[in-house]
Design a protein that fits this description.
The two termini are 33 Å apart. The protein has 375 residues and is an alpha/beta fold. It is built from 13 helices and 14 strands. The protein has a 7-stranded mixed beta sheet with strand order 2-10-9-8-7-3-4, with helices on both faces. It is globular.
Amino acid sequence: MPVTVERSTIAFHGGLPDPTLQAQLQQELVDLIGRPQPGILSYGDPRGDQRLRSAIATRMTARAHRPFTPERIVVSNGSAGGLALVAAALIAPGDVVVAEELTYPGALAIFRDRGARVVPMPLDAGGLDVDALAREILGAGVVPRLVYTIADPQSPTGTALATDRRRRLVELAERHDFLVVQDDTYGELRYSATVRPLLAELGGDRVVHVGSFSKTLAPGLRLGWVAACADVAAAIARRRLDLGSPVALQRAVAALLEDGFDARLAVLGDFYRAKRDELLAALDEHCIGSGTWSVPDAGFFVWFTPAGAAVDDVVAHGSAAADGGVTFLSASYFAVDRGHPPGLRLAFGELASGDLREGARRLGRAVEAAGGRRP
């Protein structure tokens, strides 16, 4: 007698780390927080605990190849909290904010809540089209308050801002007097030896760097940071009205940063590279002819463009499959406005190996059902 097995939906949705890594981290945090330390149950400095800001400043100095001090660091509630502080300090109603045409929806909501007008710029394989920024915005006499970029790896597309474009962007910022905000939430999860310069390395005081421990450690920690010149950091810190992040967690994360964090990142890079490669191999097996896709060298995302089928139809057929669905976030979820390129973000960070393979198979089937090319 055949056995009926319910086949659950595979969701390529969230940019989340693998949950199987959390047990060891949880024990590390318990051990670190349990050590007697003065002041860990008190209110802390709204800018962030001095020990954590010092550890972040040390890492930023090494990564950006320019000096960062704790006075240039503000600890935030994740990168989203950092962006909210940046917006509160720097954006006034009516300001223009330039962003990639596909970007982090949370950032769009934050900027618009401050009354900003968000203007999209095209994306291609080299990231943000900086020449389009010069031609269409600056050439028209419009000076943005800031340019927001998820430079490397870009979300949702997984591309990286080319080094020559980075140099051009900070040159434009200096010439036209605007700021550049680099959202580097995924930037330390790398799968190749290629390391592109941080915008903070190239642009100095023109750049505000936003980072996070949500992907390298855990999202539930709600810890990130903003690194900027001293004046901008002070302005951002004045907007921190919630009395800061928990001191105990900040001290624990500081201890992790001080003790072999680069080795931890190397292990994570190997772990997630294997997951990326498994998804890419499954796409090669099940989706050749059904579409094209990116090969990211950092982050959690592969960008898939269906061939011969509308994205909305692929989404509909994928979620409605009776024998096991597959769901994605489509380009419209990330779009600044309606004029955007089509595509689907395949997030592989939290999915198990079998789900990656089966999800790719279901994706190929959904493209075919939507009228696309047969794999």
